[in-house]
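Contributing: when you submit paired examples, paste them exactly as shown. First protein:
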Amino acid sequence: MFETKTKISIIWSMRKWTFKYIKWRLTTAYPNGWKFIILHPFIFIKDIWHYLNWCQMIDRENN
């Protein structure tokens, strides 16, 4: 049986994302992109946690 990726391994795979892609993701997800993250770090952390959970769920379904 396949194992689900850990949150750390998912974060590690994100290192390949380009700055341009990260900027695009942030500006489409939050009203002011980087500024929103700086002003609301707890919301951002909560959203990242939910995203990692979603990635794990998709990984489980694909395996």
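Second protein:
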Amino acid sequence: MGFFGPFSPGTGIGFYILPPVLILLAITLSMTLPITKRVKWSTYRRPLYVIAVMFENWISVVGLVLILVAPPGVGTETKAVYFLLTIIVFWAATIVLASKRIQSRFIPEMGLFRPDLLYPTGANLARGEIFAGLGLKLMLTITPVSIHNFAWLPVWNWWGLLWAELSMVFLVAVRGMTKLKIVLMGRMIKQKMLGWRGTLLEEGFLYLGFAGLSYGFLNVFMGYIPFTVVYPRFWPGAVIMGIAAIILIPVRGYLKHKVDRITMSYQRTLGLMAILYVGVMVLMYGMIVMLMGRFLIVTTSLGVVLGVFLQILGISVIVFGRARSIMNDRKGMLPQMLWVLSHADEEDRQRVMKMRLEIFASMNENERFVNMMNMYDALMQLPEDKQSIMLGAQMMALSVLEAEKRNKCMRTMDRVTSMGASLQ
């Protein structure tokens, strides 16, 4: 058995630590490696971004701290203090993902792989669910009996962490690249994925990623190896998870389709993130109910205090932090979209540029100026030959606009170019 518990189940210290720890380290290193010698590494891997990425390994630190302070399954006051402290540090390393200092300047060698764009929004998703899910779990499962012996603390399981990591890769990297390359780029250039196919792919991946992450961390918390424990399977919980699927896929997907994704306002983005949070909470409650075999309610004031505290951390990340990260993401994504568009067929390029200008013309003066200024800044990041191509496409698109729309865009364009020249 050993001092720290069984060897093979992955609840203590043993070989089973290596897969999740090394995989997480490999993932974080791959997002910080140099990709070109033409530009200085710190230009496209900014210090705050590197720090935030490397802090992903903090999940492993949390597990090691819990195990080294006291054996798995043994709760102590010291263990509780260390656990809450590590959670707060992990939250602090997460909230910085909303900073604009995360993002770097676009360079062509990056292509579509922009970790500085994909990672902040994806990490807010994953980490926000961790905080919110942990808060919900503590709120529902801290009982009068478990308060004094600290049995509410996570047991920890490294195999469960491995499954959670694989779910995070799916949620952040696989979904992020699918959303960018297949859905967003496909819609923009080839007019594909315009209907429910794109929504089901994008939001369905989101739901699957959340479900996998929830299941992984539930096993981490309980000290179980995923797929080896026969849970009670209380089927009303599956119905609740189905309600979460409705909230996250058709409802949220429909609301995202109603407006242009690139120019969506912060307020609307915030609203979509609030719906996301509600859907995630319903999903996790349904999973807890299904796997625990009964409906759970709050029974202690400590559960309320700790649960609400962690919910606040979760909301700050998954709603406010992610909304701000997405606003940064959209602006940072523009030069890469324009770069892709510069390689497209002339017909597609003209159609997309005309559609962009029509959207700008439909806005009020301030919104139009902000969005056209963002596009100007993005154009200035492209190589000179691609700038010429896109500026030519812009002028051609202007020439075929209706007179009123063309005049609006040209007036704003004059403001943008004069301000851009004064800043250079």
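If you have annotations for the second protein, write them as plain sentences, like these:
Residues 15-334 form one domain.
Confidence is low (pLDDT under 50) at residues 1-7.
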